[in-house]
Amino acid sequence: MTDRIERQVHIRAPRSRVWHAISNAEEYGRWFGANLQGQVFAPGQRARGPITIAGYEHVVFDVIIERVEPEQLMAFRWHPYAVDAAIDYSKEERTLVTFTLQDVGEGTLLKVVESGFDKVPPGRRMEAFRMNSGGWEGQLRNIDRHVSTAS
To answer: Which element (helix H / strand E) includes 17?
Structure first.
């Protein structure tokens, strides 16, 4: 097991378009599957909203924005795979999710790295890692489709 998940996708859209899709909270929610209406992604700010993905409507998307470097990097912290309403995740350390953008050929290379799984409680570490690993693959397909159809 590793402490980090790393995924990337080449999106055939300009960096500015991809940046807007990850840095604008409401648009992020549209492709990610969360209602983030009225939320803002700014350093030190918390963004929260209900997940809109079937079967996960009971889960709240809850992040604390750590860094924003326009058109280059956006990072937030969250509790990975925090889907059980009976568990209080607030005492757990959050993992760090970092998106980076880079111009590549005709488009943008979007990378996502989620790190800090070694601090997730042992009883749920493997499941959180497994679920988020597959989850990021799906989410990168979602943003690619979203940006490609919305540009």
So the answer is: helix 15-23
